[in-house]
């Protein structure tokens, strides 16, 4: 169950790990002749034959195309696994991931459409939010002669950063509401994302303050989970990173150089190592992957009767039984005859 929940939580996007700073792993930098520190690269820059430059460019373009395709695939997989995670936490069972995929594939496709539309819309909005002021500043000559417009540039930059951060917080809040509340509504009532949002907004409208408090409380819990499971993630990071460092140093001492073949092998094995590392971190983070959907579920159940009925079904009262039949009284005994004489 734990291994399957790690996979479901990872693909559903429930990975709560904070960043760690390990410092310099190879000791202090050597001193230069002038007394300052000079950076010494661990690896020398790769020397690429100009004749193979076209091959490298082709690999880069293929890699970029592959990243885009894989991004769309992972977004679809994430959409389906959000429903699988919700169903697993709701039923307290994750016995078969394949059955969950077959059951929630249709609902996940509708949620994938919502995520696609939302992310494209948010990307266009932020591009316009940053691009239009830059175009205005360029047309007004502020960028060409910044010293003459330092006050306007500073004030505009401060205002732009403030608006950008506020819009980013709103975008993140909408994404959290969709993951935590839109998915259960779409799953229980079998709705598309437009009807699901209409239903969710009807629940938020009577008490928006409690949903804002929910978002703030979840932020605090996310920070705590990131710290706790970030510390716990040191073990899988060390288990994967140490063999890689040993292998790279051994290859360097053996005289291996960078070329198209070694770069390709490094990308392949590096990708496999990264996938293994992410899964091991997800394995450590299973408690958080289960807690946060359950936390959202119980919060929503108090305001959404359909979820409350599924989460806490009413006990089944047995049907009243008819009283047992009263046995008939036995016939009276005949009197004992008098003895003779």
Brief account:
With 341 residues, the chain is mainly alpha-helical.
Low-pLDDT ranges: 19-43
Q: Count the helices. How many?
A: 10
C-alpha Rg (nearest Å): 32 Å
Helix content percent band: 55-70%
Question: Care to describe what's here?
Answer:
The protein has a domain at 52-206. The longest helix is centred in the middle third of the chain and has 43 residues, at 97-139. It is built from 10 helices and no strands. The protein has 341 residues and is an all-alpha fold. The model is unreliable at 19-43 (pLDDT under 50).
Features:
single chain, 341 residues, mainly alpha, 10 helices
Helices and strands in order, then pairings?
Elements: H1 2-11, H2 53-91, H3 97-139, H4 150-189, H5 193-204, H6 208-232, H7 234-253, H8 260-284, H9 286-301, H10 305-311
Helix pairs in contact: 1-2, 1-8, 2-3, 2-9, 3-4, 4-5, 7-8, 9-10
């Amino acid at each position: 169950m734990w291994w399957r929940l790690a996979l479901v939580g990872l693909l559903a996007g429930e990975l709560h790990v904070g960043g760690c700073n390990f410092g310099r792993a190879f000791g202090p930098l050597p001193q230069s002749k002038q007394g300052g520190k000079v950076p010494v690269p661990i690896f020398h820059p790769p020397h690429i034959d100009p004749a193979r430059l076209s091959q490298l460019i082709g690999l880069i373009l293929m890699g970029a195309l592959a990243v885009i395709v894989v991004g769309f695939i992972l977004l679809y997989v994430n959409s389906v696994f959000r429903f699988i995670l919700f169903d697993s936490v709701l039923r307290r069972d994750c016995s078969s991931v394949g059955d969950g995929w077959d059951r929630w594939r249709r609902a996940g496709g509708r949620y994938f459409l919502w995520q696609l539309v939302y992310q494209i819309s948010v990307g266009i909005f932020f591009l316009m939010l940053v691009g239009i002021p830059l175009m205005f500043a360029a047309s007004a000559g502020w960028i060409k002669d910044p010293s003459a417009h330092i006050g306007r540039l500073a004030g505009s930059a401060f205002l732009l950063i403030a608006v950008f951060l506020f819009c980013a917080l709103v975008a993140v809040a909408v994404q959290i509401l969709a993951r935590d509340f839109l998915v259960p509504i779409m799953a229980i009532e079998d709705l598309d994302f437009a009807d699901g949002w209409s239903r969710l907004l009807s629940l938020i409208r009577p008490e928006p303050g409690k949903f804002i408090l929910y978002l703030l409380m979840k932020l605090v819990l996310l920070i705590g989970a990131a710290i706790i499971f970030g510390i716990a993630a040191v073990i899988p990071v060390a288990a994967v990173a140490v063999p890689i460092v040993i292998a790279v140093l051994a290859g360097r001492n053996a005289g291996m150089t960078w070329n198209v073949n070694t770069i390709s092998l490094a990308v392949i094995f590096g990708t496999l190592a990264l996938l293994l590392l992410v899964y091991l971190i997800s394995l450590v983070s299973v408690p958080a992957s289960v807690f946060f959907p359950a936390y959202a579920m119980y919060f929503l159940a108090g305001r959404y009767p359909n979820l409350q009925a599924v989460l806490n079904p009413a006990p089944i009262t047995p049907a009243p039984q008819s009283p047992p039949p009263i046995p008939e009284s036995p016939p009276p005994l005949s009197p004992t005859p008098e003895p003779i004489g």
